[in-house]
Every structure is written in C-alpha cells, then in structure tokens.
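1st attempt posting a full record on here, be nice pls
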Amino acid sequence: MLFGGVPVYAMLFSMQCARSMYIVLVSWFVLQITGDIASVGKVLICWQLLAFAVGPFIGPLIDRSRRRTLFAIGETIHGSGVGFLALIALVYSPDRPPISVLYATACFVSVGSLLSYPSSQALLQVAGKRSLMRTVSFGILFGQVGNIVGATAGGLCLALVGVAGSLTICAASSFLAALFASLLPNDDRMLQTRPAPHMQDLIAGLTRTVTNPRLKVAGCALLMAYASAHASNALLAGFARYDLKLPPNQYGWIAAMYSGGGLIGSIAFVGFCGMASERLLIALGAVLLACATAAFSTAHTVAQALLWQGLIGLSFMMVRTGSDATILKTVANRMVGRIRANIDAAIGLVAVVIYALPSLLPGVSARHIFVGLACLFAGASCAIFWMQWSATKTVRPPCRHE
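the predicted structure (as tokens):
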C-alpha cells in the first residue's frame, strides 16, 4: 500500500510543506512590517473567513468534478499567489510593502486551499480502499514530514535568502504538489446515479454532517485540534519574538516541533494502527492536548518550548488521525468533498475567533492567551467524552465506499 500510494503521499508532503512554510514566512514578514502581533492573525484569518463563507458552496462542486484536476488547479493558484508575493517583496526591498498587499495575496492563496484540501481527502480515500486506517496514517505521516520540512525551511531560508527567496521556494513546493497529482490515476471521479441541483447537494451534505453521531464527534474533535493549530499560527511568532526573545531560525524550529510531535505519533500509528480504535485516539488526544497546552504556556526556555510544542503536536495527530479515519469510514466518496468542506467551514469560524484574540485582548500576552485556551480545551475534552458516550447508543454502521 505504501508504494502503490507514492504519488498521493508525495502530493500531500509537498502540499503541507508549502502550507507550513507559507505560515512561517508570512507571520514573520507581517511582524517585520508592522511590529504588531495582532497583525499576524489579521493576515492568516483570510483563509478562515473564505472557508466559512464560501467553503460549503464549493463542496458540491468538488464532489461533482475530477478531484485530481481540482487539486492541481488549487495548488497552482496557491503557488501563483505565493510567487506574486515573492515578486512584491523583491520589488519593495529594502522598503516595506503595504500591508494591504499581504491581505490581497492571502485571499488569493486561500482560494487555492479551498479547492485542494477537500480534494486531497477524497483522493486519499480512493487510495485507501483496501486499508483505510493505514492509508490515513501514512497520509498524515507524509503530511507531517512536509510540515516539519516547511516550517524548518521557512526559518532557515529567512536567515539565508531573505523573504523574497523564501517565498519563491514556497511557491515551488505548491507547483510540485500539482505535478504529483498529475501522476494519480483517472478513476478519482465518483459517478452519481442521478444528478441533483447544487443547493440540494449542499443541504444533503449539511444535514449529514450535523445529524450523524460519528461525524459530530469527529467534527467537534477536529474543531478543538485545529483551534490549537491556529493558536500556534497566530501566537507563536509573537511568543517566540517578544516573550522568549528568539531569532527567526529558532522560531522556525519551535514551529516545526508541532509537526515533530505529530511525526512521532504518525510513525507509531502506521506500525500499530490496528491496535487503537479511532474513538480511543480522539479521547486520549483531546485530554493530552489540553494538558500540553497548559504546560506550553509555562515555557521560559527554548528547550521547554520545544518539548511542550512537540507534545501538543502529538496530541493533535492523535485527534486528527482518529477523526479523519472516522469521517472517511463513515462517508461515501461521492460526499467527501461536501462533508470536509462543511467541517472546514466550522474550523474556519473557530479560527476567526482565535486569530482575532490578540486584537480583542490587546493588553493580554500570548502566554496568558495560551492559558485560557488550555482551560477551553479541557472543557471541550469533557464534551467529546460525553458525545462519544451518547454516540454509542445511536451509532450507525459505516457506509460502503463506492
């Protein structure tokens, strides 16, 4: 299964490498231009706003189209936006470009992500027909390696080749992901037995998302996990620069440790994926996420930050692996695009709140915001336990993939 899925795993690696590198580069670039930690969230929030406002409407389009083609289009858009930002950074060097340029390119780049990520999940499900849990674990493993490479390369490239050169490398990674997608077979489009209006498909996807007990548990767990990831995106640059007084290359290493912990978990899950159920991974991961976030807020040295950031990444991986496998086992391939787009829209709404926190709480340090998030995650863990217990009474058998 590993070698048969090489193109899809390489595609996921390149896609995640571009995403994590872009976040590191843009976060530092924004701080360099404005010196304001809240500005980081204002730029990164663009994708979340689009995911919330437009994502559910794109879901039916993804389910009706060839996923391989849509993924390639999305990555091409993403790479073009990053490449344009690299050109702007080069033209304005050594001056600082207007912040409005970063907002505009962030919106353009986000359109690509809205197309490529749900499409990648449908492609992963097709690749994992024979062993879905193992395929999901391998997919997340390669994605985490991409996150580590991207985040680490982002910090190193900033020091070596500057912002413009770093953004150019980031854009190349997106184009490489589109190239790998072109190597996938052409059987990734699921034929529908009868065509349905766009709005009818949209409503069917929304109804399935909110009424299926397994999808509700997985969706809420993903909301919590990605709230942690977006908090790291929005707050880590400021935490590293102002609280820990670190240079950009060390900030890149801390950002990479989020994926480093996830990589350790991914390797373990690949080897022992049959020994832990999706439900157990979600429950244990949620508890560990709350505890690790609380511990990270107490970090005062690079070593402490690396350790706790790694544990946060490990817990994120546990929750995501369990949730992704639950969704792909529960939903037919012809509906994956809609379900993932709906969940991504909810994640986008949560992320909007996360990215707005520095602006809403201007006098509160990043360290104290992490403390508040840890308390929130603890409450969310209890809610997930309750939903899992309730779902055992009404659980439906997973559907057959078509």
